[in-house]
């Protein structure tokens, strides 16, 4: 087993190196600034590093605020819709419709009410993060085991107390999945919204680089936002494993059994 794991790890290390070498070879052969290789991108990172980091900070701040607003609103709403069955059934078609609506499509509507400033971009990011959070929380809350509701009645819990002490803990694993999806959506839409509305941020940086045919600089910005997304997703997953340790312990027990 250890030999297999070592072999997989070795392949995971060798394959990216091989791709980069082939890419660099093709770039040398093409010999054009429109097709830069990894070495040219590294040079651009070294030259533009302070500017990229500054613009990335604007992007991450907007994504963080939009995600927090979405989480604060959608998690309680999802639990409420799961608890109030009739209301959930009435609103479920509208939620499904919103899930198919791409965030850039709401940009013109947001511009009418929020302008083109930071508020508009945060609204669009909030919308992108809200959909997976609401859908996962709603689905988890409405499928709570009936025995849990019997326990709530036996303990004479109010509806609000049942939502807090029963529905929320039962829905946490699916909410955590929604959080990971929402974080990815927030990062993606923050870059997209900046290209459409903003005057700063990594999205604007990438767009300006490409408009000036500085392809290596644009790819350097893409590399930074990709690395930031990878780090953030890894941190969220590690936090989830520690926060929901009981859930993962049960999964390990069931898999071994």
Walk me through what this model shows.
It is built from ten helices and no strands. It is mainly alpha-helical and 257 residues long. The radius of gyration is 23 Å and the shape is globular.
Number of strands: 0
Share of helix, binned: over 70%
Q: What fraction of the residues are assigned to beta strands by DSSP?
A: under 5%
Q: Pick out the low-confidence regions.
A: none
Report the principal-axis shape.
globular
Mean pLDDT across the residues is 81
From the helix content, strand content and strand pairing, which structural class follows? mainly alpha
Most strands sheet? none
Taking Cα atoms only, what radius of gyration do you get, to the nearest Å? 23 Å
Give the terminus-to-terminus CA distance: 19 Å
Task: Report the total helices.
Answer: 10
The ordered string of helix (H) and strand (E) elements is HHHHHHHHHH
How would you briefly describe this protein structure?
By secondary structure, the protein is mostly helical. 86% of the residues lie in helices and 0% in strands.
Keywords, separated by commas or semicolons:
86% helix; mainly alpha; 257 residues
Task: Reconstruct the topology from this structure.
Blueprint: H1 2-30, H2 38-83, H3 85-99, H4 107-114, H5 118-142, H6 146-154, H7 159-197, H8 202-211, H9 215-243, H10 245-256
